[in-house]
Amino acid sequence: MQPLPWTNFAPPFSRVRPIDFGAERFDAMIYFGEGNAPDADHLKVFDEQLTACIAPALLAARPIAEPDDLAGQQLFQLETRPHAWAAWFAGQGAQAPAISGMMFDQFAPMVEAAIAGLGIALLPHYLAETEISNGRLTPILRPAVAGTGAYWLAWPRMRGSYRPLMAFREWLERECGSQADDT
């Protein structure tokens, strides 16, 4: 990765609700959704892909060979992705069972709960890859199925020619390659 071409941006932070560019002073945001932030221009960064992950010890105790094996399991849910499990099951060619499991508002505690063997985490593939490569989680069934949205860069229309923002957009497009798509 090349170094970022600017130095005076505010540090990033995370929150569930989107930024209102009309009421808040931000140059840009990256968010998960449909590319519909009001009064903003957008760059599609990439589509979300989902991978279901389980702790290796839990998988050894409860083997999973097909989607039906997930019935009755603790399937962790994320507050901002209410239809994610349905999309994942569809990607497996199966109907989703009744979903029961803890509800999280962030992926980090969901990952830790899965590593602890408390249930199965449905994660964006880019997050799952790190835990899988470290051996802390194991993917189940088909990994990286289509999710329910995409990640977007959005910025206020009136700030589109702001040079640091332009440099950031260009850098992000280079890093994401052909997945990035202006809208």
TrEMBL record:
Superkingdom in the source lineage: Bacteria
Pfam family name, one: LysR_substrate
InterPro entries, A to Z: LysR-type_TF_proteobact-type (IPR058163), LysR_subst-bd (IPR005119)
Residues in LysR substrate-binding domain copies: 24-176
Gene Ontology biological process terms in this record: DNA-templated transcription
An MF annotation (GO) of this entry: sequence-specific DNA binding
Family: Belongs to the LysR transcriptional regulatory family.
PANTHER family: GLYCINE CLEAVAGE SYSTEM TRANSCRIPTIONAL ACTIVATOR (PTHR30537:SF26), HTH-TYPE TRANSCRIPTIONAL REGULATOR (PTHR30537)
Protein name, entry field: LysR substrate-binding domain-containing protein
Organism encoding this protein: Pelagibacterium lacus
